[in-house]
Predict the 3D structure of the following.
Amino acid sequence: MTADLGQIESVTIQLQVYNRLREALFTGKLLPGESLTIRNLAAMLGTSPMPVREALQRLVAEHALTQLPNRTFCVTPFTAAMFRELMRVRMAVEGLAANQAVRRITPETIARLREINLEMKAGVEEGVPTAVMTANRAFHFTLYESAEMPQLLDIINGLWLRAGPYLMNAHRKLDNPTPFLRAGTLFHERIIAACERGTPRRRPAPSPATSGIRPATSAGTWMSSTRPRLRPPPRRGAAGAGPNRARAEPWT
């Protein structure tokens, strides 16, 4: 055979490394500001440095990581200004996805949303925040996939990738995260009810994009201001900006 079928094994390893690091960011296993080195990651993943380097460079291009002058990388730190901007962008983009999804969603997908929300409730009652946050992500992306807008879904993936290290760890700084986590399941019930109606409301209704942040545009017709959320990370030097300070305001 003379056909060139390409180097599948090498490409597969590179993709696996990228997906593993991406999932670590999504699930909060990597913290904002945490340093990463190619050598250590290669040893942890059992690969050569090359696929790790390429995966890290790809995540830098997606703004999830920052490359430092000493050839190391770090999880992009989160500032209050970045948080506010990212939430506004999410409001617009995810609001659009939810608006389209609710018009196209199938009964089977609605049933799947119910199942995921039950898994999330079980995680809340059993005191397993990681399971709660994982189910929360599954719920949102199951909804957004129903919009049938793949380019929009790629944008949302990038936004969650940037926010994941902060959002997946912020609940751990609350003295009692249960009310905060339980509020998310109640919010999801309202989303399911909206899906069953088949038409998004124009007036106050839950927003899977903003989760309590008021819209700056009319792209998202969903809104909620009743659920707890975490404050954005404190500014450097701000009073009470210690590592264990977090307060509940709208869930995201």
